[in-house]
Amino acid sequence: MNKTRLEAFSDGVLAIIITVMLLELHVPRGADLVALEPVLPMFLCYVLSFIFIGIYWNNHHHMLHAARRVTGGVLWANLHLLFWLSLLPFVTGWMGVNEFSSTPTALYGVVLLMSGTAYAILCRALIAAEGSGSALARAVGKDYKAKLSLAIYCIAIPLAFYLRWAAQLLYVLVALMWLVPDRRIEKVVTENAGE
Asked: Where are the domains of the chain?
């Protein structure tokens, strides 16, 4: 199957997710900087979630660029990823409105954990469709960075009930780990183009 529809659909869903998150930001009443103070927690949550969506969009693009075809299993794995990412506006809003309270912070981590897991499943589905010798399989390798991210989420979720700010810092740490686009896939795709 051609991957063009998968890419277009995913791009559209991710754009809608960002739009829905933005709609949660309400314009404050007042013309001075003090008027921004009540919306600051929501804004910070939005920024973090926007960065995560951007990271997923960027890496999803690179991953699909390395793939040559998709299967029905890949389509379902992609929908699974989009499902978890579509929950980000809800947990972002809940965490922001409640100023980083423990339960919303933990649930935010659960959505991040499930999104990361779904991304790994999608990656494995693409590798299964392409074969173990594919460019994507070579680029991903053991994927220690993804495994470390999932482990950090598993630590942050229960930590949110005791040290919610530490949990938030762990979420930011994962975002910083992935902020620079994953060059492994780009490198392998470029090498394959030169062959």
From this structure: 4-194
